[in-house]
Structures are given as C-alpha cells and as structure tokens.
Amino acid sequence: MLTNLRIFVKNHQKISSLHINNMCFCKIRTSLKRLKLHVPLGRNYSSLPGLIGDDIKSLHSIINPPIAKIRNIGIMAHIDAGKTTTTERILYYSGYTRSLGDVDDGDTVTDFMAQERERGITIQSAAVTFDWKGYRVNLIDTPGHVDFTLEVERCLRVLDGAVAVFDASAGVEAQTLTVWRQADKHKIPRICFLNKMDKTGASFNYAVESIREKLKAKPLLLQLPVGEAKTFKGMVDVINKEKLLWNPNSGDGKDFERKPLLETSDPELLKETTEARNALIEQVADLDDEFADLVLGEFSENFDLLPAEKLQTAIHRVTLAQTAVPVLCGSALKNKGIQPLLDAITMYLPSPEERNYEFLERISRLLLPFADQHIEIPSLTSGNIALTVGLKHTVTGDTIVSSKSSTLAAARRAEREGEKKHKQSNEAEKILLAGVEIPEPVFFCTIEPPSVAKQPDLDHALKCLQREDPSLKVRVDPDSGQTVLCGMGELHIEIIHDRIKREYGLETYLGPLQIAYRETILNSVRATDTLDRTLGDKRHLVTVEVETRPTETSSVMPVIEYAESVGEDLLKVSQEAIENGIRSVCLQGPLLGSPMQDVAITLHSLIIHPGTSTTMISACVSRCVQKALKKANKQVLEPLMNLEITVTKDYLSPVLADLAQRRGNIQEIQTRQDNKVVIGFVPLAEMMGYSTVLRTLTSGSATFALELSTYQAMNPQDQSTLLNRRSGLT
Ligand SMILES: Nc1nc2c(ncn2[C@@H]2O[C@H](COP(=O)(O)OP(=O)(O)OP(=O)(O)O)[C@@H](O)[C@H]2O)c(=O)[nH]1
Predict the structure, then answer these.
(1) For 85-144, how does the pLDDT look when each residue is reduced to its tens digit (9 = 90+)?
(2) CA–CA separation, 84 vs 143, rounded Å?
(3) Which of 314, 339, 550, 563 is exposed most, by the fewest CB atoms within 10 A?
C-alpha cells in the first residue's frame, strides 16, 4: 500500500536523517540508476524534469527545489467539468508527456486505474510532479463523483492551493458546492478555471455570476474571453492588456501569440479591458490595505500607470487570504488557455512556506509520484508531496509524526503559547492536520468469497481497501455470519467489487444492494430485568431498570443518562460496561436490525451483587434496553437524498413525471442556459438503478447528482411493505 505523505519540517529545515548531503557519492549514483530504470518512458512520458544524464546536481534539483518555488495543488470540480483533460494538457505543455491523452480514448496519465479508463471518470486521486518556468508543481487530480467525496477530502488536507474547474456552460454545480465547502474547511486558497468555453451554451458571465451567488466568493476577473462557444478563440489578459490567440493550425495548442491590445486594431476590446482592469484594481484595493495605500498614493490619477507586478503581488496576497478568487477561462479539450492557467498557478497560489504547518515528520523510504509510476528518492525538503511504502498500521486520514512524545511536547508548547495569548489563539489545532470527515454509508450488500477457504483472502483485501478508503465500511452480520459491505453509492460498491477481482485476484459474489435504514422510537417505555447466573462457584446477579425515550434533537449515538438514585460509587466500577451494553443493543434496532437514532436511555436503578463480572452487567443492561425498545412504538427512518438533475428542456416533462412516481419532492426548477436544473428531495430507496432509467428517458442527455440530506420517517404504508418484504411475507 502506498501512503500519501506530506513532509512538514519545523522552520522548513531539512530532515537530517534523509539529508542528501549525508549520502556518499556512490549511493547517489545508485539512486540515479534506479531513477532511470523506474522512469516511465514506455508511453508518452518525457524524461523527468531537470534530469539530464547522470548529473548529480540535476538530481538534487529534482528532489530539492527551493521551497518558495514549490506549488502543491489539487484540481477539483463537479463530475465531468474537465479536471482530467485539464491535467493532461498541463502535463503536455510542461513537457512531462509527449502526446496528448484523452479521457474519451481512455489513455490519460492520471486516470490509470482500469475502472477509470473504462468509465472515463476519476475514482482515485493521482499525484504527478512537473516543472513550469522554474517552479516545481506537485499536482493532484481528484474525483468529481459524489461517491468519492472522501477521496477529495483526504487530498485537500495536504494541499497548499487548488484549481477549481467549472464547465462554463453549467457554472456552479452540485458537487462544486461540496468540494468548495471542503476546501473552505481546510482553508485552501483557490483559483477558478472556467473550462469548456468552446461548448455550445458556454457563458463566461453566467459562470462568474454563479460563483458569486452560489459560492458566495468574490471573483477577480483576470481574463475576458475572446468569443464564446463555437466562436471561442482565446482570451484577453486583463492585467497586461494583451490578447492571447491560438493558432488554428496548431493542433496541440502549443503555438499561441500574445499581442498588446491597440487602439487602432481593437478599440472596443481595449475599452472593455481597461474598464475590467480598473474594476479589478478597485476590487483588490478594497480587500488589501497595502495595495490600497499604493493605488491611492501614487496611481489614483491614472490606473494605467500601475505596474502589472504590483497588481499581481496584491492578487497573490488576497488569494492567500482567501478573500477573493482569481478567475481564468479556456478550453482544455481545444487546447486553449492552459499555459496562462499554469502561469496563474505559480503566480497566485501559495508556496508551502506561506502556509502554517509547524511540525515534523520522519520516514525511511520515499518515492516521488508520477501517477502510477514512482521513483525512489533519497531525501526531500519540507513542503513537498511524496509517497512512502510499508506502513502497516496507517489509514487514510492519519497524520504521521516523528514520535508520540515530540507531538505531545509540541502540543503542550502550543497550549502554553495559547494561554499566553489569553487563550484566544487556537495554536494547539495547528499541531495536527484537520481529520477527514467520513460520510455515512447509505447502501450495503453482502459479499461472499468463491469458497470458504478464500474467506481470509477476502478479509485481507477488504482490510487493505478500508485503510485506503474509510468511507467503505465492512461488518459481519451477527445472524447470518455473512460479510457486509457498506458504501456511499451503487458505483462505489461496484468499483470495490471490481478492485477485489483485479487487484486481489478474487472473484466474489455480491448480494442485492440494500438501503441502510435506521430506526427510532416514538414514545417512552420503562423496563426492568434481572440476570442471575452462577458460573463455577461465582454468582453473578444484576438488576436494572431503564427508560427509553425519543430525543428532542437529532442524535446518531444513544444519549445515556443516569437517575440521581444510581450511586456514584456503583457507576465508577460499572459505567463503561453499562454504556457498552447500551451502544451495542442500539446498533441493531428491533424492526430491521438497523442502527437506532434519536434515542435517549435513562438508567433508573442498578443493583449489583458483589463479584458480578462487567460482562454480565453489560449483558443485563443490553437485554433490558432491548426489552424496552421492543415494547415502544417503533418507526423506520429512510435516507432522504438531495437530488439535482440537469436536463435539456425537451426532456423535462418525462423526467418530472418519473420523479413523481419515485416519491420525489421538487423544490425548484432553475434555468441554466439551454438546460433545466431540477432540485429536490427523493428517498434513496426509489433511486436504485436511476442512472440507467435517466439515460433511457433523456437519450443520455441528462446528468444527476445525489447526496444524503437526512433520515426521514417512512410513511406507515411504505414501512409495512418494507417490513413484510424483509420478513418474506410479500
Ligand atoms: N467541449 C469540451 N469538452 C471538454 C472539455 N474538457 C473536457 N471535456 C470533455 O468532458 C468530458 C469529461 O472530461 P474529464 O476531463 O474526464 O472530466 P473530469 O472532471 O476529470 O471528470 P471526473 O474525473 O469523472 O469527475 C470528456 O468527454 C471530455 O472530453 C472542453 O474544454 N470542452
């Protein structure tokens, strides 16, 4: 298993144990040879940036560029916005690949998993490293499909900046909002790239407006498009007042020219650009005091005299402060606008030293990632992204530290600092990277190995896959003993099934896909129970009285309370056993065996005979709570999903008619260019196999996004149908 590793070093010093200067010459030579052996020259890859012959200096520069020249960035967006295509162009223009890969032909660098190439979607993030005009860029292409949200989050926490890619004909879409929120959470500075400017319906203004309205972000328009949709030819660089046009005869887009806008040849465009530049200067001055002083002091009379570099430096600062987002445009597919995007990445997104990471990590074996190829490297300076192998106990979301004691010491130090600052500062939080939020799985199904003898192999495969992807949950059904997979969606489970076959050589069988329901109770019930058992010569005797009731506010875990009559001394020895007993019984509700939610349990009395084991206390509490839950009025809760469907006007009616039959609740129908966007809620149970139905209904022209909204009570009729089906009555 490969682990994505971000090396953080206090004060950005090198890690001494991995320092290249500590290596003897022959070891460096060996590394060079190894480097050449592992370089993926097979497909279209150029040699690695900077590596010319057996040149030790260039090896050093590959591994250790100055930290100010490093950019660790991610590419994120709604599904199909064009992240992978953009990444492919970036790799080509930076000289990393020698030909252009195509998502639709299944030969891109970053979508290297077989499932990605077959389906034309990104599932797993891929990291690549390349150089651009003296900068080292470590780039991660992340998936856009909602089933793989966790994959995006695990990348965001190690990045210094991100490029948000938009389909210029659609603007902000459902998953854009999700990834944007994730980037907000991890405080990632961003730039926006309005892709697909060549597509019918593409609209620069519409996309910019949707950034303003839906993302509540302040767009800084660094470019204006020249033409739109079929007429899209290039763009204007607002800061330098230059026109960037691509030579129509240059197939690969390498050939483009930058021309100053002139009063004689482009009077209209020049006027528009001057207005846009002035507006940009005012906007940045509003957000950055240093720049405001400069503008008001020296250049208030004539903004034209303001040097481009001053404006660019100020834009860098506001991007870093995340008070605004630079916006660029282009068409990755038609090879337009990628080189300026690369310039903007190096110019506006921060270097690692501009971000606040303040702790040390140490590791033994390091690899530089090039999508599915890796090169072993002897050392790395802080601020880089690398891979390491062989860590047996790490899972996605872990932070690797040099030692527990140094982390604790750093945390204590930070706490003291925090206290000094009157407890206002949250320094302690800086010690650890924010954890990844693991979404709740909404689907599950049983999985069986081809024979009982293969069960250990299946367990091993699932254990490894879970370490990579904590949104995959695995449990054993206590009644049937079967292994159950719980995932984020149909596609997620399908991909896991496929990976078990391809990567672990195991042909497994999946049971029917089922919805992850929950249960709750509607009234208060009391129950008492006594457990009296003699094991050997020891008597175990417990008597408990509990009350179960619905909670007022939503709570996934059971709320546990103790009546005053239950003595504190008694609780000291038994509290853990009691709470274990309650939690275990709440994992399997009385109706469907689904987890209980919104339930509070009060322990009213507890009598324990001396010498009774904690296991017996747990067992008695479990049984008593179960009794109370069974007596209560019960309710099944089903996952309710947020649904967003984008469909052309012609197919709106059949889509709406179909949704009505699926218990869909339409909230809003928006108009987005030539498309209608249907926004609403629908129970997940009604959405099994929906992608096929939607494709048939709309001749493949519609797309949809589904995300868990909440759990809602099922109506009595649907609930009884479900219970009958589960008990085999219908
Ligand atoms: N017209 C047009 N189509 C594009 C452009 N960029 C990408 N596409 C097409 O859009 C589709 C999706 O492109 P991808 O690059 O796979 O998009 P993605 O965002 O990586 O997709 P996921 O990783 O699955 O979320 C493909 O059919 C591309 O050929 C563009 O600039 N213009």
Answers:
(1) 898 899 889 887 766 666 556 556 555 556 555 555 555 556 778 889 989 888 887 765
(2) 9
(3) 563
Give the residue-averaged pLDDT of 565-572: 81
Tell me the best of 84, 116, 141, 198 to mutate to test the pocket of ligand 1, counting ligand atoms within 8 Å of each CB and taking the most.
84
Decide: helix, strand or coil at residue 96. coil
Binding-site residue ranges for GTP: 77-84, 141-145, 195-198
Angle at 451 between CA 445 and CA 454, to 5 degrees: 85
Provide φ and ψ at 253, rounded to 5°: 75, 5
Asked whether 670 and 676 are in contact (CB, 8 A), the reply is yes
Q: Is the CB of 487 under 6 A from ligand 1?
A: no
201 lines ligand 1 (CB under 6 A): no
CA proximity to 438, closest of 556, 359, 358: 556
Neighbouring C-alpha atoms within 13 Å toward the C-beta of 377: 29
Q: Which atom of ligand 1 is nearest to the CA of 87?
A: 15
With 0-12 / 13-18 / 19 or more C-beta atoms within 10 angstroms meaning exposed / middle / buried, residue 80 is buried
**Counting every residue, how long is the chain?**
730
The number of the ligand 1 atom at minimal distance from the alpha carbon of 165 is: 19
610, two tokens: 């001396």
Look at the block and give the residue holding tokens 């009157």: 422
CA 703, distance to chain mean position in Å, is: 20
pLDDT for 396-428, tens place per residue?
667 666 566 666 666 676 666 655 554 444 444
Closest CA to 138 of 72, 49, 51, 68: 72
Beta bridge partners of 484: 446, 475
The alpha carbon of 83 and the centre of ligand 1 are apart by a number of angstroms equal to 7
Ligand 1 binding pocket mutation candidate from 116, 199, 230, 333 (most atoms within 8 A of CB): 333
pTM of the predicted model, to two decimals? 0.61
Q: Which residue, judged by its Cα, is nearest atom 11 of ligand 1? A: 80
